[in-house]
Specification:
globular, single chain, Purple Acid Phosphatase, chain A, domain 2, alpha/beta, six-stranded mixed sheet
């Protein structure tokens, strides 16, 4: 079983992962997965909250997978050794908490997943570089190149796409629904616009926007926050 949900931001939105909130959690084992679409939040300073949160996740029935969002400590995250897991590059935070790196394709339970974390913070002016925001929140040229190379290897056909932010069309839908104008277009958004055109996929899951929304323009793209969806 593979479940997908949106941001947790450490303990702020962790309750949705507690077993009494979702019946399927009782049925899962460490060979089953919960994927978090960015802003994981438990690799922030390796302080007490990080340790308690990671210990709690380690004790759950399932294995936790996550792509990075914009609110991550990339200096700390990138200190973890890179290893290969299910066909793609990962940071093994613990034995059952795994960071799915950018531009990778993973084969999990017979399904292919393309992962591309990152997003642009809309609250940059309230954050301090190297303390509460990092320049690595957006991908670099090498990550874009590797992403395209891996998609080409799979003939631009993927079962599921997992990202933090989404395409420009999705951002426009979010802005209309929430009356928000805080989500700028950037190189990553343009990259996703191109991916949506060139890649065949069954569903695309993302987080970032703190709402639950199925796109009217492309119903295969699901924005998640509180909702938890099962990969079929």
């Amino acid at each position: 079983m593979i479940l997908v949900t949106g941001d947790i931001h450490g303990f702020r939105n962790l309750n949705k992962l507690k077993s009494n909130q979702y019946a399927h959690f009782y049925e899962m084992t460490k060979k089953d997965y919960v994927i978090i679409c960015g802003d994981f939040g438990f690799v922030w300073d390796n302080g007490g909250e990080d340790i308690r949160g990671r210990d709690w996740l380690d004790q759950q029935n399932y294995t936790t997978l996550f792509v990075d969002g914009n609110h991550e400590n990339f200096a700390l995250l990138n200190q973890y050794p890179i290893t290969n897991w299910c066909g793609g590059k990962v940071h093994m935070i613990t034995d059952s908490i795994i960071h799915l790196m950018r531009g990778q394709v993973f084969e999990i339970q017979g399904k292919s997943f393309f992962t591309m974390g990152g997003a642009e913070s809309h609250d940059q002016k309230n954050r301090v570089i190297g303390e509460s925001i990092w320049k690595e929140e957006l991908p670099n040229d090498n990550e874009y190149t590797e992403a395209l190379q891996n998609l080409k290897k799979h003939r631009y056909a993927i079962d599921y796409i997992i990202t933090h932010c989404a395409t420009s069309v999705i951002q426009d839908e979010v802005i209309k629904q929430t009356n928000s104008y805080f989500y700028p277009n950037n190189q990553l958004i343009t990259f996703f616009d191109n991916i949506a055109k060139m890649v065949t996929f069954r569903k695309w899951f993302c987080g970032h926007y703190h709402i639950d929304l199925i796109s009217h323009t492309n119903p295969k793209i699901h924005v998640l926050f509180d909702n938890i969806e099962e990969v079929q």
